[in-house]
């Protein structure tokens, strides 16, 4: 398993008491598979994604990334883990307006100390993989919403993560563009062999995922695999 959550409980202060956001949640996501986290607003989906990303430390339970138990890690260790093992696609692309599509990706590799030449080559390969080979020199204002989201996804893959976490990637897109983005995520998950978690409230595009985990009131109420695993 590349991503394993075991017995995750997360609470927040709420006046004199505490509000339970996640209640004994366990989830396994193998490499090369796509799991959708579905549920209504306020059900705990975003909290689950933040815990999986090691951005929030749970009250109890363990998060294991590519065989590494993150319990007790320092902030610096968690930052290094995210940089090398986890790709995060936030709901809004948040691209830098002054950078081209290729440069959005290159800066990620340069932060990690890779040479500019290798970074550009990798960036162009990923833009090609997401169908934007001809848009490498365009800046965000020259791209459509769907194209910006594709750059966002490619950027998250720049450092070859084993775990890919995606938050509501279709929320700002129409049906056809949303379907295209989900198809892209599905294809890249299998090509890049990532353990991918997709948080969504839109069930219209979930027919191609490998597993759906239903979350309600902070509890994982059901987890079902929709089709045979395509893992080798």
TrEMBL record:
<dbReference type="GO" id="GO:0016887">
    <property type="term" value="F:ATP hydrolysis activity"/>
</dbReference>
<dbReference type="InterPro" id="IPR017871">
    <property type="entry name" value="ABC_transporter-like_CS"/>
</dbReference>
<dbReference type="InterPro" id="IPR027417">
    <property type="entry name" value="P-loop_NTPase"/>
</dbReference>
<dbReference type="InterPro" id="IPR003593">
    <property type="entry name" value="AAA+_ATPase"/>
</dbReference>
<dbReference type="InterPro" id="IPR003439">
    <property type="entry name" value="ABC_transporter-like_ATP-bd"/>
</dbReference>
<keyword id="KW-0067">ATP-binding</keyword>
<keyword id="KW-0547">Nucleotide-binding</keyword>
<dbReference type="Pfam" id="PF00005">
    <property type="entry name" value="ABC_tran"/>
</dbReference>
<dbReference type="InterPro" id="IPR017911">
    <property type="entry name" value="MacB-like_ATP-bd"/>
</dbReference>
<dbReference type="GO" id="GO:0022857">
    <property type="term" value="F:transmembrane transporter activity"/>
</dbReference>
<protein>
    <submittedName>
        <fullName>Putative ABC transport system ATP-binding protein</fullName>
    </submittedName>
</protein>
<dbReference type="GO" id="GO:0005886">
    <property type="term" value="C:plasma membrane"/>
</dbReference>
<keyword id="KW-0813">Transport</keyword>
<dbReference type="GO" id="GO:0005524">
    <property type="term" value="F:ATP binding"/>
</dbReference>
<dbReference type="InterPro" id="IPR015854">
    <property type="entry name" value="ABC_transpr_LolD-like"/>
</dbReference>
């Amino acid at each position: 398993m590349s991503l394993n959550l075991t017995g995750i409980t997360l609470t927040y202060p709420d006046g004199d008491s505490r509000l339970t956001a996640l209640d004994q949640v366990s989830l396994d996501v193998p490499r090369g598979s796509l799991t959708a986290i579905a549920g209504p607003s306020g059900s705990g989906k975003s909290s689950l994604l933040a815990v999986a990303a090691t951005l929030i430390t749970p009250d109890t339970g363990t998060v294991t990334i590519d065989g590494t138990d993150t319990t007790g890690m320092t902030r610096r260790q968690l930052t290094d883990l995210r940089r090398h093992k986890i790709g995060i696609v936030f709901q809004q692309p948040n691209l830098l307006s002054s950078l081209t599509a290729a440069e959005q990706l290159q800066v990620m590799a340069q932060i990690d100390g890779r040479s500019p030449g290798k970074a550009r080559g990798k960036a162009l390969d990923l833009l090609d993989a997401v169908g934007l080979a001809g848009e490498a020199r365009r800046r965000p204002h020259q791209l459509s919403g769907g194209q910006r989201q594709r750059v966002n996804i490619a950027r998250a893959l720049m450092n070859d993560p084993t775990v890919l976490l995606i938050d509501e990637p279709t929320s700002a897109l129409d049906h056809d563009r949303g379907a295209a983005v989900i198809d892209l995520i599905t294809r890249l998950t299998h090509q890049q062999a990532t353990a991918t978690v997709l948080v969504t409230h839109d069930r219209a595009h979930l027919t191609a995922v490998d597993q759906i985990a239903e979350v309600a009131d902070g509890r994982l109420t059901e987890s079902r695999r929709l089709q045979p695993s395509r893992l080798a």
